[in-house]
Amino acid sequence: MGELTTINSITYEYPMNEKIRSWLRLETLLSQVYDLSNITSYSTGIAFFRSVSELIEILDRGEVRSELIKELEKQRSRLSTWAAAPNADDQLISSLLQQLTDKASRLKSVPRFGHHLRTDKIIGMVRQRLSIPGGCCGFDLPTLQLWLSIPQQERDNAIAGWLQSIDPLNDALKTILTLIRQSGNFEPKESHNGFYQSNVDGKELLRIKLSAEHLIYPQISGHKTRFALRFLHINSENGILPEIINFELSCC
User: Does residue 201 contact residue 225 with C-beta atoms inside 8 Å?
Assistant: First the structure.
């Protein structure tokens, strides 16, 4: 997911395989669900339920749990290899290994991800209306209108129960993506005439850090071992593209 790193710099990301593509989309949806969980109005309520509905659809498409457990084990093996290196921080690595073990154990023991989301009547009722443009008006969903009027504490308790079934998923995914992102280092690069291409082997995620000053963004394409960046101006008709564009690249 593109992230704002400073006022003048943006980090854009691009997945090099389908697994990372799915995880970045899942990360975005989980972020939306948690950010919108503090419902303060009818509009924010609908936005929350829409994100929940999309999250349920993604979770229903494949076995996320087994893929995450497999990745946690992969990261554990990688850390164990680093532990044998000279000058390795044994205490830090030992702590990280224990964290990965605990997260994998938690993933294996929790019920199906999002179970409370799938079975709740309020969520189910709203999901049925979301495919209809404007289908979540008060007259369509008087039950939701009433639910949004109950005391805040009762509503917060209900939402906390819903989120509890995805907390282990959110925690594990955050840990995995953080480790993947930290596996690469940003290096300065130059693009000439708005284009840059290179080969990359065994990497899963590209991260491009670019100044927002000139209103330029990268259009990224790639698969497995090769990628290309084409830099474009946000004003496609009248924007001016510098001959040389400086950016930073991290291959993770």
Answer: yes
Mean pLDDT of the chain: 89
Tokens of 180: 């993947």
Q: What is the pLDDT of residues 135-170, one digit of tens each?
A: 888 899 999 999 999 999 999 999 999 998 899 999
Buried b / exposed e along 61-72 (16+ C-beta atoms within 10 A): eeebbeebbebb
Angle between helices 121-130 and 42-61 (to 10 degrees): 90
Cα–Cα dist 52/45, whole Å = 11
Alpha helices in the chain (DSSP H): 18-36, 42-61, 64-83, 90-109, 115-119, 121-130, 142-147, 152-164, 167-182
Map out the domains of the chain as residue ranges: 37-181, 185-251
Under 8 Å between Cβ of 249 and 216: no
The span from the CA of 121 to the CA of 37, in Å, is 17
Pick the CATH number of 185-251 from 1.10.1040.10, 3.40.50.150, 3.30.565.10, 2.60.440.10: 2.60.440.10
The amino acid present at 221, given as its one-letter code, is S
Q: SS3 for 211?
A: strand
pTM: 0.88
Burial 144-156 (b: 16+ CB within 10 A, else e): beebbeeeeeebe
Question: In degrees rounded to 5, what are phi and psi of residue 109?
Answer: -95, -20
Mean pLDDT, residues 38-56 taken together: 93
